Fold this sequence. Notes:
Blueprint: E1 2-7, E2 22-27, E3 46-49, E4 54-55, E5 62-64, E6 67-69, E7 74-79, E8 82-83, E9 93-95, E10 99-102, E11 116-124, E12 127-130, E13 134-137, E14 140-141, E15 150-155, E16 159-162, E17 169-170, E18 174-178, H1 185-188, E19 193-195, E20 201-204, E21 212-219, E22 226-228, E23 233-238, E24 249-250, E25 257-261, E26 266-268, E27 272-274, E28 280-284, E29 294-297, E30 300-303, E31 312-318, E32 323-336, E33 345-348, E34 352-362, E35 366-371, E36 374-375, E37 381-384, E38 387-392, E39 401-409, E40 412-423, H2 425-429, E41 451-456
Amino acid sequence: MSISRVKTMQGSRPAGGQSLADTVLLLLTLCTLTGPHHAHAGVTPRFVEEPDSAIIWHHQPVTLRCRVEPATAHVQWLLNRKPLDFREHRDIQLQDNHDLHFPLSAHGGLDVGIEGEYRCLATSQNVTVVSRPAILSRPVLRKFPTSDNLEISAPEGGFATIPCIAPESHPPAQIDILTESGSLLGHTRGEGVERLPSGSVILRNLKVQDSGVYRCVAVNQVSGANRTASHNITLRVTSPPGDLEQTTVIVDQSFPTLHVSSGDSVLLECPTAGEGKPNVTWTKYGGDLPSKRTEVEFGNLRIHAVNVLDKGTYICETVNGKTRKLSLEVNTPPVIVAMPDDSGLRVETGETVKITCTGAGFPSPTVMWFHNGAVIGRRKVHSRGSDHILILENVQVENSGIYTCDLANVLGHVSAQVHLIVAETKDYLSAGSDNGLTTADGRSTDSPAGEVLGYSG
């Protein structure tokens, strides 16, 4: 996070006709709040328990918990980035002055209109910390993507992958294969069935009776809703080829994109059919496979301890030159990039102050700003790439206080605070402490240092 202030001073012009209007840039490094040794450890609130995302369903009340130290900290809640109005949401209850409870209504369910992003704010002596986002949502199961009918041939005793790409679902759907007789594959075949993370299934030790028409089925285990794919997958198991080895074939040449969190393991799938084991080669477009962190599992590529350098396009290729490409995106938690200076900021009334919070993370984090625990409207925030700039024009004494920048994405959140002191002009000029800052023409500002509180995540 960095802070700049734009200050216009009235006075005579020096030789050469230059104006005395100066722009002063002040950079702040924010130190991580690592424990009680921090200068403000006795004041800064700390979350003992943060709210978790939850799925809303019939006959199941929901409670979002928020426990804070010290116990004297003031707790409030945000809904979709705005203060939660209990007069508008009369069915939401505040329990023990910190937890949110969503009871069942008279008709036995949860009322509509409560879905959204909830965050808990804790304030103690004007220092505010913000919890991670907790999403309240209802179960969803979309239709399978439209696809053409597929025909797969494989020899008896060989293997075949039945490709089933799971449809959008919250929570993730359970995938199964529906046989021609109307039963589920897992119930009828027993051994020789391997389920893959995508929802696809590998059938090994094929028998002639495995021939038939298959369809993919998705079930949302919260709502019980189910979807059946509209396309058919026809498997033909042929007689053994004798001494001739059947070439491995790729049965699905779609180009999917996978999202994985940094540090996790991921399986890149190459759906194939053939005899024995899949005979495929893996490469990475424009680079090498991750060193010492990959292994091939029955034709599929496993990458362990994924990091951001593993992002890219991976290619599975058979001996006859057929390929399948997959794009890998690596999600990383948000971070706030510190600047190389540890000074604070004291300004005089009438100045324009710009506070820049530079973040990183994937997906790109969203930003929220707070002043002494109150949400700052988006009109005062200007985002340029990874820079999120809070602009305070014509600051007055009441603009003094703690400013918090909070960045969040699907993997978490991180926040930083900085103390801004706005003094009347006469107080500012008589402060007398030199913090080493200089104006654009090299003169010392002689303004006292502000207070850096740090950041936490």
